[in-house]
Design a protein that fits this description.
It is found in: Membrane. With 197 residues, this protein is of the alpha/beta class. The chain has eight helices and five strands; from the N terminus they run βαααβαβαββααα. The chain has a five-stranded parallel sheet with strand order 2-1-3-4-5.
């Protein structure tokens, strides 16, 4: 099995969803979780889960390639063409909605699966007729706006305060989890057969 992790360094498309300047704090909190360094480990975690649950029992190898394209639509679409032509199985990305729309059209013509990897994405991509090979790992902008609308019954300052409180807790949890994971990784490395020889 060949899995291609295709992410862009910067994804700013989601900013359009937050039109109020008072929500800048929430955006800044989210931005620290976006990008190659912040999310690349998720592929390994997903592969471990696939292996441990026997979801793809006939597959035992994960080959990972990536392209850092800075949301360049032509580079992203070109990567889809190249990877689908070379027998790759799936692409995770691109992380920018504008690139995902173009790449989704290309993926459709090649009947090539593409999983959008973005904090939020254009609702255009949920149209299964136009983008039949595109799947999502998160919610569309339309769903995010609906959720934010449901919160709008409370004063805006309260929403921002609540978002900040939630993200502060999330940031702390993720930092502790990352330290534990790095410690576990070092322990596994020390106990691996190669280091014991």
């Amino acid at each position: 099995m060949i899995l291609h992790y295709h992410l862009d360094k910067h994804d700013m498309d989601h900013r359009a969803v937050f039109s109020s300047s008072h929500r800048c704090a929430a955006i800044k909190a989210v931005l620290q979780f976006i990008g190659w360094k912040q999310t690349a480990g998720a592929v390994g975690v997903a592969w471990d889960k696939i292996q441990s649950d026997g979801i793809l029992p006939e597959q035992d190898v994960l080959n990972l390639s990536w392209a850092l394209t800075d949301c360049d639509k032509s580079l992203d679409a070109g990567a889809i063409i190249e990877w689908s032509s070379n027998g790759f199985d799936v692409v995770l990305g691109p992380a920018c909605s504008s690139s995902a729309i173009v790449s989704g059209t290309v993926a459709k013509s090649f009947d090539f699966p593409m999983v959008i990897w973005a904090p939020t994405f254009s609702s255009v991509l949920v149209n299964a007729d136009d983008y039949p090979t595109v799947m999502a790992s998160t919610w569309s902008a339309e769903r995010l706006v609906q959720s934010m609308g449901a919160l709008s019954t409370t004063p805006e300052d309260t929403i921002v305060d609540n978002i900040n409180e939630e993200y502060d807790g999330l940031v702390e949890y993720l930092q502790v989890s990352a330290m534990k994971a790095e410690s576990l990784k070092a322990t596994k490395r020390r106990l691996s057969p190669q280091t014991l020889d």
